[in-house]
Amino acid sequence: MTALYQLTDLAQEYDGRRVLDLPALEIQPGELLAVLGPSGAGKSTLLRLLNFLETPTRGNIAFDGQTYTASQPPPLAVRRRITTVFQRPALLNRSVAENIAYGLGLRGVPNPHEQITALLERVGLDELADAPARTLSGGEAQRVALARALALRPDVLLLDEPTANLDPYNVNLIEEIIQQHRAATQATAVLVTHNVFQARRLADRVALLLNGQLVEIAPRQQFFDHPTDPRTRAFIQGEMVY
Amino acid sequence: MPGELTDIIALSLRVTGLALLISSLIGIPLGALAGLRRFIGRRLLMLILYTGMGFPPVVVGLFVYLLLSRNGWLSGLPTEFLPSLFTPAAMVFAQTILSLPLVAGLTAAAVMAVDPNLRLQVRALGASQVQAAWTILGEARAGVLVAVIAGFGSIISEVGAVMMVGGNIAGHTRVLTTAIVLETSKGNFDLALALGGVLLGLSFLANFALLTLQGKTLDP
Fold first, then answer.
1. pLDDT at A39
2. Of A52, A128, A171, A234, which has fewest CB within 10 angstroms of its CB?
3. Which residues constitute the domain of residue B168?
4. Prediction pTM value
5. Is the Cβ of A79 closer than 8 Å to some Cβ of chain B?
6. How far is B120 from chain A (nearest CA, A)?
7. What DSSP line would sit under B128-143, residue for residue?
């Protein structure tokens, strides 16, 4: 099986401060890779690089067989196969339905009305279709952000702490939607989280990122039951590892 | 002077409206560029725009006067590209220079105030650079509207520039502000006051129209 992403010798620096240093990382098509780590470990930076939202200081990212570097960024059509749901749902100051339709509008999809209605039902917000997005609660807003991403049927869904700060009801709902979507589309997903339990519930493979470095990456069972690195063991047991 | 008055009002609106249109067409994209993109000379551009917000109209009038006069700085250029002095076109030219920095500078400030997370999210959803800029302008629409209103306010009320490059010629380049100056200097205070009232009324109506155009987007 050829990897969907192949990261080689990848490094990202902000003002000379190295926040990410990955000699190699592969992401397989169709898998859900959970990236664990404390805040400041470089998890969000990794997602921004995978979405080609910023260019790496060093190294390259191969996506679906094509290699991209800082001087050779991917064309818009490739970038549009990938999308991110961020920790804080950044909604446009428009109605709920218009927010969900936004990404489709960018791609010139005409009149996606039925699709929007189906998505609204799936995230349990069909009654709020015409409500201004700014009147939503945190959990509702995050479900809109997720529906907006799923509307694009992305080949890669990047999730940046999508359920941090949410109540158990919304966490459960969002995890269910993600799993349904994966079952239906075989989309690849990368989930960044500091929630060990969430990684255990959703992931096929799990990685631990610490200070911008990959400590361990393994299939879920092995990662949690037989971690090879003592820092992984400490992290999954809820001890501080810095 | 009823017929003359309508001419004066019509010319005021035409000159200021055209200048505002041109400075919005240039200033809003320029402001979005300055507010959203990093490029060499960006800080200098912002400095020029912010300085330009406080340009004294007479100085701009003098500058345009020297630029356009027959033996002026641009006299080597083919005349068909430049408006002649003492014409409404010259007044539009001067007022565009006055309102452009306001429209562009305030637009830049408005788009910079939009949540950077939203800018990132819009790109993550697959927006091209132009689509992203357009979306962010839409999010900053209340601020962009203020930019246009400020640009309008600065030129509908100014007298220095239109006086210098227009010359206050009756029936040709006389506008409300220059008429007020003239009537006041002649001692016709009643007429000057009435013209002032008309000017205030026009400004009120124009702003009312701009706000209505924006509809509900300014609702809290």
1. 86
2. A234
3. 2-218
4. 0.88
5. yes
6. 7
7. -HHHHHHHHHHHTHHH
Count chain A–chain B contacts defined by CB atoms under 8 A. Answer: 47
Would you call B126 and A149 a contact, using CB atoms and an 8 Å cutoff?
Answer: no
CB contact B219 to A (< 8 Å) = no
Cβ atoms of A124 and A180 within 8 Å: the answer is: no
User: Chain A, 127-146: which have a CB under 8 Å from a chain B CB?
Assistant: 145
Q: How many residues does chain B have?
A: 220
Phi and psi angles of residue A222, each rounded to the nearest 5 degrees, phi first: -65, -40
- Please, are residues A158 and A50 in contact by the beta-carbon 8 Å criterion? yes
Q: Which residue in chain A is spatially nearest to B131 when comparing CA positions?
A: A106
Q: Which amino acid, one-letter code, is at B217?
A: T
Domain count, chain B: 1
pLDDT greater than 80 at residue B79: no
In chain B, the residue whose alpha carbon lies closest to the alpha carbon of A146 is B125
Cβ contacts of A93 on chain B, cutoff 8 Å: 139, 217
B114: part of which helix (H) or strand (E)?
A: none
Give the pLDDT score at B97.
96
Average pLDDT over residues A106-125: 90
Predicted confidence at residue B209, as pLDDT, reads 87
Evaluate whether A148 touches A103 at the Cβ level (below 8 Å).
yes
> What is the CATH number for B141?
1.10.3720.10
d(CA B92, CA B166): 9
The answer to whether the CB atoms of B126 and A103 lie below 8 A apart is yes
Among B123, B124, B139, beta carbon nearest to A92 = B139
Distance between CA B25 and CA B46 in Å, rounded?
18
What is the CA A171 to chain-centroid distance, rounded? Answer: 15
